[in-house]
Each structure stands twice: as C-alpha cells, then as structure tokens.
Design a protein that fits this description.
The chain has 265 residues and is α/β, with parallel strands linked by helices. It folds into two domains: 6-234, Phosphoenolpyruvate-binding domains (TIM Barrel, Alpha-Beta Barrel), CATH 3.20.20; 237-265, no CATH class. Helix content is 43%, strand content 14%. Strands 1-2-3-4-5-6-7-8 form an eight-stranded parallel barrel, surrounded by seven helices. The protein binds 3-methyl-2-oxobutanoic acid and sodium ion. InterPro entries: Pantoate_hydroxy_MeTrfase, Pyrv/PenolPyrv_kinase-like_dom, Pyrv_kinase-like_dom_sf.
Length: 265
C-alpha cells in the first residue's frame, strides 16, 4: 500500500485513469475509505456544515480544520490527504497565508492544502508553493464567497465568467498548483479546461470530463435527507440504516433484551 503522491495524480491524468476523491473529517471514516482504495481524501471546510452544523463554511476556523485534518491523517495510509484552508486564512497577505499553510501542514501531517480563489490570491499561492507546500486550487463555485455571490447556483454560465475561470486555471497551472478542483460549472466548460491544462482537475457538479470526481462523504453515504442537488448520487442509505439500528437498540434497552447473559460479566 504505497502512498499516493501529487506526481502520481498527474500520471493518472496522462494515462486517462480517473481520480477518485471523497471528503472525510474523522479517523474512522478516513480509515474505511482509505482501505476501500480511494485515491485522495479532502478534509473539506464542508466540515463546518457536516460536522458542526453551521449554515455556511465561513465560520470554521484554522484550529478546527487542523483538528479534523489530524484525525483524517491518523486514519490514512495510502490516499493523498488534502486539507482545506478555511475562510480568511489565505486572502491577500502572502506572509500571513504562508504562516497558516505551514501550521496546517506541520500540525497535521497533511500532504497538501486546497485554497479557494484565482488571480486575487496569486501572490499567496506563489509564496506557499515556493515554501514547498503542494497546493490545489478551488475554482468555479466557491462557497467561502457565498456572501459575495448570494447563491450556490452554477458558475461560469456567462461568457465573461467562463473566460475569467479559464484564465484563472491557466494562471494557477503557471504558478505551480498540482491540481484544480472545479465546483458546479457546466460540463462542457469543465471538459474544455481539463483538456487545456496538464495538471489534473477534480470535479464536483462539473460533469464527466474532469480528471477525477469528488463528493462529500455524508452525501455519498446517504446520511442526510435534506440535501439533494442534481449532481449528487447516493451510494448507500445510512440515514435509514442508522435510524433503524438506533430504534432497535432503544427497544432492546427498554425491554431488557440488551444486554443478555453472554453479554454480561
Ligand atoms: O469543503 C469541501 O467539502 C470541498 C469539496 C468540494 C471537496 O471543498
Ligand atoms: Na471546501
């Protein structure tokens, strides 16, 4: 079980092998999907929603992201672990951004970080890459900018926005990012970008033309019922499985069916 590297992801793109990515935020889940053979685990700032119950990703802190990332690193042997840099930590002050990136890598053992944004943060990205930290860019829909856009709708539908997106992707490749996450953009645009650049793209709601796919683990496992965007495919119904198991357990406790003799000392 050799560790996946950023170089290997590039080779996978060259060889046309799609890259499988899921999010995780804890040791146990990371261990399960790592042993299942996932290529990359992203510790997303979606932890703000899935783990803490906040309405947006804006309120998760660097300390909290470090806590979740460390747990995932502890559970992972083979997959490449990428940690999200939360809102406000990479925003136009390269030395401050580098400090935050170093903390993330040093305190967690993550392999790489992911940063939302394009040309606006190019100096930050450059500084971090120069320090030897692998960076994945995150473009298209950027949930940390929800208050700027006011909607989680598909991005890059208009020509001007598509043009800026393509330019940002080219810029990020020139700066030396090892990959680009493309969130919720038209499939044709994502496919075009993926063909134009030599680093791998990972899509979420971006069609089949990207070099890999990512989904949020709670969504994939069907742990929630209230989030059903068009791009989501559920691979299990853990909401029902866990509900029934909990109800069964409650029932057994109430009726003294648990514990029985063999389960007692
Ligand atoms: O926070 C997150 O879960 C993400 C995904 C798109 C990977 O950024
Ligand atoms: Na994120």
């Amino acid at each position: 079980r050799k560790k996946i590297t950023t170089l290997q992801l590039k080779k996978m793109k060259q060889q046309g092998e799609k890259i499988s990515v899921l999010t995780a935020y804890d040791y146990t889940t990371a261990k399960i999907i790592d042993e299942a053979g996932i290529d990359v685990i992203i510790v997303g700032d979606s932890a703000s929603n899935t783990m803490i119950g906040n309405p947006t990703t804006l309120s998760i802190t660097l300390d909290q992201m470090i806590y979740y990332t460390k747990a995932v690193v502890n559970g992972t042997k083979r997959a490449l672990v990428i940690a999200d840099m939360p809102f406000g930590t990479v925003s136009g002050n390269p030395l401050k951004s580098l400090d935050a990136a170093i903390r993330m890598i040093q305190e967690t053992g993550a392999d790489a970080i992911k940063i939302e944004g394009g040309a606006e943060i190019m100096e930050d990205v450059k500084k971090i890459i120069d320090a030897g930290i692998p960076v994945m860019a995150h473009l298209g829909l950027m949930p940390q900018s929800i208050n700027k856009y006011g909607t989680y709708a598909v991005r890059g539908k208009e020509e001007s926005e598509a043009k800026k997106l393509i330019e940002d992707c080219q810029l990020m490749e020139e700066l030396g990012v090892f990959g680009i996450l493309l969130e919720k953009i038209p499939a044709d645009l994502a496919a075009q970008i993926s063909q134009q650049i030599s680093i791998p793209t990972i899509g979420i709601g971006a069609g089949v033309g990207t070099d890999g796919q990512v989904l949020v683990i709670q969504d994939v496992m069907g742990m929630n019922k209230d989030f059903s965007p068009k791009f989501l495919r559920r691979y299990a119904d853990l909401y029902t499985i866990m509900t029934e198991a909990a109800q069964h357990y409650i029932d057994d406790v109430k009726t003294m069916n648990f514990p029985n003799k063999t389960e007692s000392y």
